[in-house]
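Our preliminary data section would be incomplete without showing what the modeling component actually yields. Below, a chain of 114 amino acids is followed by its predicted structure, encoded as tokens that our downstream tools consume directly.
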Amino acid sequence: MKKKKLHKVDLIFIIGIITVGTLCGSIDGVLFNYASREYQVGFFPIISMMGGYLIYLFLLVLLIYSIVKYDAKNRPIYVRGYMFFIIYYIYLAIVTVSLAIVNAIMNIFYFFFS
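Predicted structure:
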């Protein structure tokens, strides 16, 4: 059986989602932990919400590129039009995991260094 390789546009798409989700979740995790400890106020993850728009723009650029560059037989598997409906849920899962990890790390630092 022939092993099928992942398309390079799909790889760029997956790495881009993971990178943007991790960065936005990490920034919001640091800001959330700092605001709750120093100012005792709530915090809304605005950077993660704005990162969602970046993900949609990123998908749109890759979708247009794959339509122009590749024919119907060689198009990427994951960069499709229906991804507009499920991309934000994947992104939010990555952000949630990243936010939880950064929050746990910052709680450990606050426990040992304060």
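The mean pLDDT is 88. The radius of gyration is 18 Å. Preliminary results of this kind motivate Aim 1 of the renewal.
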